[in-house]
Structure formats: structure tokens, C-alpha cells
């Protein structure tokens, strides 16, 4: 019996449908409860007069119980509606607390480089990857496939880019760190990303990346099984004078 | 790159580097230091801890040739490779027990 009602509800739009569903559900529950209780009455009528007083008190008892049940269900319905409205700020708080959904968990300060001590027991392999967008004609590749670092120690790595064409090409790059969770611990002191890099015809340059892995990486239980971090750079062709907004900064 | 459809998993948020971008070494002024560093890496099976001296030399070369903003090496995480200045050793206060 509830199935056709639920089917009808699934066709209506989701959000208002949820609210309506709660109301329909509560109403349906009320109706079924009322019907169920009404069906009990004929049995009390069949009882003799001697039981009429008892049946009357029983009826009153049932009525009060009905009322309490009804108020509870009404309260639950109102509570559901309130929860659906309150879920937006609550979810935001939850995301900030647990760091799910990509929100920044821990910032890092630049003075940390001076004071941090390397965690020598934890060796992490950093592999390098280089990509170019299809339209840029640079040859871009890392000069080392991997490097073994420990958290808290600064490390240097090189990429090489060559412009084999006869005209200068301006490239601009961005990077990616996999696994994503480890990306928050991967701090670059200096690199060649997010700024235009101009290569003259037939020029080949070495591009360094100076980075370190935050020593708190060792303390994070989610990173306990992470042994390899992959740093991937991708170069795109930039038009002259184009300014990419730096991520994390706002220009006001 | 992060896609828009990852509701449960984290997406990657790129961050700008702390000290900005390295200017390109168009003239290869520090290429010799880079080659030394790469040689050291290849010899030590790409262990960064063994080649920190060479990386320090490379960064010093960059700073000398105006390819990097000059910074004290402690700020770049090389404080363990720095020798303590001699004046500090001479004027070290004597420990309480022996004095």
C-alpha cells in the first residue's frame, strides 16, 4: 500500500519533494494509525455493558496515546524540515573540521624552513612527470625520474625544456601532486610555475624546483602508507602579456 | 588535474611557491653546478640527503648570477651545512660545572 505513494513522490522534484515526502509520510502514518485504532472499536462495542466503563477508559487511554503519538510524529516532521535547512552550515563546519572536500587543513609558514628538522627515518620517493599541452611545441621532460627525500629536508630537482622551433614560444605551467592528500604537505619554495617562461628559438634551459615535504607528514596517520609522491608539471602555451591569477592569492 | 565530479574524495588545490618563480637561466651560467648535482644524484642512487652540498652550491651560483633573490642559506633549509662562525666558538660561555 505505501508503494504507489512513494512512486508518486519519486517523480516530483527532489528538494521540495523531500519536504513533501516527510509531510505525506507523516500524514500517511497518522491516517494508518487512526484507521488501525478505529478498527479496534467494533471489538469494544461487542463487549457487554459491564465492560462499558472499562472500554470507555480504554478508549480515553487510546485517545491520549494517539495524541502523544501524533505530537511525536509532528515534532519529528518539523525536526526533519529544520534539519534539511540547517544541513548547509552544518556540512560546511564538518568539512572544515575534517578537511574533506578539498578545504585547506593546515597552512604552512615560510619560517618553518629555517626551524624544521628532517625526519630521517621516513624516506619518500618523489617521482617526476612532465607533460605538455598539445598545442605547445616544447620538449619538456624531467632530468631525473625519481629522488628520495625525507620530510623536513629541502630538495632540488630539475626539468629541462627545449624549444625546437624557429620562433620564441612563451609557456606557462601548473603542477599537480598525487596522491591529493599528500599535496598539502608538499611545499615548493621556488619553482617555475604560474609565471610566463619565454624560450627563444632552439634554446634549451634547465628548470629547477626547490621543495620540501612538511615534517608533519610523518605524524599524519592518513599518510602512513604513502611512500611515493608524484609531482607532475604541465606546460601550456601563453599569449603575450597574459596574466594568470596566482592560486591562493586574491587581487583586490 | 582535479575534476569537478569528485564529491567524496579530495581534490588537489595548487599553491603558489613561497618565493615565487626561478628566472630562467638562459645563458647556462649555473649549468656546471647542475651537472655536478645530477652526477652526485646518479652516483648515490638519487638520494637527496647525500647531495645537499651540491644543491647548496647550485643555489649559491644562482644567487651570485642574479638568478635568484639572495637569501641566507638557513632560510633555505641548509643550516646543517653551514659552519658556525669562528667568533661564536671563541666567546662561548663556559659551562657552569667546569667554571
Automatic annotation (TrEMBL), chain A:
Q: What domain of life is recorded for the organism?
A: Eukaryota
User: Which cellular compartments is it found in?
Assistant: Mitochondrion inner membrane
An annotated GO cellular component of this protein is:
mitochondrial inner membrane
Return the Basic residues bias intervals: 40-55
State one Pfam family annotation: CtaG_Cox11
Give this protein's Gene Ontology molecular function annotations: copper ion binding
Residue ranges of the region described as Disordered? 40-61
Note the InterPro entries from the entry.
CtaG/Cox11_dom_sf, Cyt_c_oxidase_assmbl_CtaG
Q: Which SUPFAM superfamilies does UniProt cross-reference here? A: Ctag/Cox11
Q: Which UniProt keywords apply?
A: Membrane, Transmembrane, Transmembrane helix
Give the record's membrane topology: Single-pass membrane protein
Q: What is this protein called?
A: Cytochrome c oxidase assembly protein COX11, mitochondrial
Q: Which organism is it from?
A: Fundulus heteroclitus (Killifish)
From TrEMBL, chain B:
Gene Ontology terms: biological process:
mitochondrial respiratory chain complex IV assembly
InterPro entries with a match to the protein in the record: CHCH, COX19, Cys_alpha_HP_mot_SF
Q: Pfam families, from UniProt?
A: CHCH
Entry keyword set: Cytoplasm, Disulfide bond
User: Does Disulfide bond show up as a keyword for this record?
Assistant: yes
Region (Disordered) spans which residues? 1-20, 75-99
Residue ranges, compositional bias (Polar residues): 1-11
Q: Which GO terms describe its cellular component?
A: mitochondrial intermembrane space
Report the subcellular localization. Cytoplasm
Major location, coarse class? Answer: cytoplasm
Domain CHCH residues, every copy:
30-63
Q: Where is the composition biased (Basic and acidic residues)?
A: 89-99
Q: Which family does this protein fall into? A: Belongs to the COX19 family.
Put simply, this protein is called Cytochrome c oxidase assembly protein COX19
**Organism of provenance:** Fundulus heteroclitus
Q: What is the lineage of its organism?
A: Eukaryota, Metazoa, Chordata, Craniata, Vertebrata
